[in-house]
Amino acid sequence: MLTSLNLLEAAGMVLVFVGALFLGSVVVPGRRIKGPDMEGNTREYKLNGLALFLITVFVTAIVQSMGWFSLSVLYSQFAALFVAANVFAFLLATWLYFRATRNQETTTGFWRGYFFGALSNPTWLGVDIKLFSYRPSLIGLALFNASFAVMQYETYGELTLAMMLYQIFTFLYVFNYFQFEQGMVHTWDMISERFGWMLIWGDYVLVPFFYCLVGWWLVHPSDVLHPIAAVAIVLLFGFGFWLFRGANQQKHRFKRKADIRIWGQPARTLEGRLLISGFWGVGRHLNYTGEICVYFSFALTTGFESWVPYLLPVWLTVLLCHRSLRDEQRCCAKYGDLWTRYKQRVRYSMLPFVY
Length: 355
Ligand code: NDP
Prior knowledge:
The chain folds into two domains: about 1-35 and about 45-215, no CATH class; about 220-355, no CATH class. It is about 65% helix and about 10% strand. The protein has 14 helices and eight strands. The protein has helices at about 5-25, 50-65, 70-75, 80-100, 110-115, 130-155, 160-180, 190, 195-210, 215-220, 225-255, 285-300, 310-335, 335-345; strands spanning about 30-40, 40-45, 125, 125-130, 260, 265, 270, 275. The chain has a two-stranded antiparallel sheet. A two-stranded antiparallel sheet has the order 3-4. NADPH dihydro-nicotinamide-adenine-dinucleotide phosphate binds near residues 280 and 334.
């Protein structure tokens, strides 16, 4: 039941959480890196996401183990937090749009400017708000995931094998994101997308509240995960993670310095601009394929009793297939003939010999 008190408490939690991470982004030291060239401009980014994630984990672990606060509150207040996060996302999008128009930084019309964003990289107090927003998004997701384990433990006095696997997988996934936060500056969202309601809602609502869907299913177990099924799921996760992380890492290393070695050989490229070695010589979007395998491994921990947890990997598959097409259009416009040559050389996008 949603009451005004619940909603007020949830609004307070969202504000304190996002505010603390923002303050942390300003004051916690971090390596500074230069981003890619964007229409003649290069930005500098401070990378302290990993430190903020680890500080959050540490503080939460202490607060939970001392009994000062239970993460299960996130589970019980999920609906109120969902409403509060939505309000926050709408307000942030509105503020960013009107700030850009007030400073005459945009001529984009209201609906387009509000929905897709008026600016590509708005900053506040020296913090790039687009890069920052991934922090509450993924740390929020990690906290929701942890709250499911706490809830199960408080209810049944133990954790199931499925819950343990889910916790390990999702922790590694979020940890990996922050470990390679520098790679984010070369992603499509950072380079090409404007920062409006669409990305803001994705960061503050969609990712933390929908990407934890599988965890919900695991809290009250109805089926026991067979150890052989668990081994198969671990193998799928390991394979997907290797592909996802490996492909992203190869590209990030190449973007920093074209002259690298991949799989023990000097990297082969097309005119030094497009990588055709390693995963990028096997498929044009194998990083997407790897991430899809990772999400299927999350869902498989729930067994086959319900199709609902599978909504998450199916959604991601549709999103990433669509994204691969949009990205190819962008690359075709940017690289012209070179992209055509790349497509002739690396014929498959996400699934070798199939697609
Ligand atoms: P990529 O990291 O694949 O980046 C695409 C860009 O990489 C292209 O636009 C191009 O940009 C460059 N590029 C493409 N091919 C090559 C090549 N052969 N050699 C060198 N550069 C190349 O995609 P995204 O930015 O979309 O995604 C990044 C990660 O985020 C992925 O792992 C994806 O799975 C994940 N993701 C997750 C989502 C989720 O909801 N969980 C949503 C979206 C993404 P350039 O102009 O720099 O050359």
